Task: inverse folding
């Protein structure tokens, strides 16, 4: 193996499945790992005891490497870290917080640590904190996003130039050609989220999966920057947010509209009107619900074909 991401995680392909809340349980993580990528359990929507159960089931379903994504602002973060350490997890992706807080502790336990960033400033801070790699996530990505609105096309080359550790591109990637484009720009591998939402193994509600594959260009928007920027599908819930902006509502009033459990209601319970439906812009190119293995096979086949085609340019 010559690719730095393949070596770092001991995987067949430099392809990581994003740890998405309500969508990335053990079924998806193990399926991606068994197919040659790096599967990730998204712990941000899990109580500690649920995370422990998910890790155990993933370990039973695959003998390949997999990881856990941990949002550092999660209220039960200390309990999650304890479970990760006790369960023998080998890879942790951290996001939404300061990597200095837990990186040293995780690395002392022999865990490979990757941090998600959206700009150069935080990429350098993550490198200084001692992480093994970073995910550079562009504006196109679904879910919680960077305030700078820097696109993946612009973000990857400037971050690659700024750091020495491996860079994993994320945001707007759902095909082999997009994967190759990111790697030509300097990425060592890619992280893919939205495409795996519409997989058979995703823990997302079938209503949400069907909504994703029916999305068109312009159906998503980045909003709620006053709280935490999030890209979501426009629906009745978003309409309430839009009206609040028209009235110049305060952050507190926006938080009241958001309330609690909106993401769970939309993505996990399938309420397409009142729920928060987080997905990336690339959903406009996703038209089928497939197995994780077939998604990876399709991406890698297109990646290899595109490599040959580019020689003709």
Result:
């Amino acid at each position: 193996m010559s690719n730095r991401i393949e070596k770092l995680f001991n995987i067949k392909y430099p392809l990581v499945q994003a740890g998405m809340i309500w969508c990335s349980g053990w079924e998806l993580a193990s399926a991606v790992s068994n197919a040659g990528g790096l599967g990730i359990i998204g712990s941000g929507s899990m109580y500690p005891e649920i995370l422990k159960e998910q890790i155990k089931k993933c370990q039973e379903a695959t003998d390949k490497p997999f990881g856990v994504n941990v949002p550092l602002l999660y209220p039960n973060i200390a309990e999650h870290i304890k479970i990760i350490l006790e369960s023998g997890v080998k890879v942790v992706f951290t996001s939404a917080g300061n990597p200095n807080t837990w990186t040293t502790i995780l690395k002392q336990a022999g865990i490979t640590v990757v941090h998600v960033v959206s700009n150069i400033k935080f990429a350098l801070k993550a490198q200084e904190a001692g992480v093994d790699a970073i995910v550079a996530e562009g504006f196109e990505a679904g879910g919680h996003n960077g305030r700078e609105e820097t696109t993946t096309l612009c973000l990857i080359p400037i971050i690659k130039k700024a750091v020495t550790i491996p860079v994993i591109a994320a945001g707007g990637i759902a095909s082999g050609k997009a994967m190759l484009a990111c790697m030509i720009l300097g990425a060592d591998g890619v992280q893919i989220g939205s495409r795996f939402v519409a997989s058979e193994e995703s823990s997302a509600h079938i209503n949400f999966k069907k909504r994703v594959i029916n999305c068109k260009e312009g159906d998503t928007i980045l909003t709620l920057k006053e709280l935490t920027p999030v890209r979501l599908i426009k629906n009745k819930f978003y309409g309430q947010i839009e009206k609040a902006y028209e009235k110049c509502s305060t952050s507190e009033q926006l938080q009241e509209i958001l309330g609690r459990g909106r993401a769970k209601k939309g993505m996990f319970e399938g309420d397409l009107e009142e729920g928060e439906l987080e997905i990336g812009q690339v959903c406009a190119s996703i038209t089928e619900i497939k197995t994780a293995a077939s998604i990876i096979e399709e991406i890698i086949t297109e990646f290899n074909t595109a490599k040959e085609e580019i020689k003709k340019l």
In short: The chain has 14 helices and eleven strands. The first strand starts at residue 15 and ends at 17. The chain has a mean pLDDT of 94. The two ends are 27 Å apart (CA to CA).
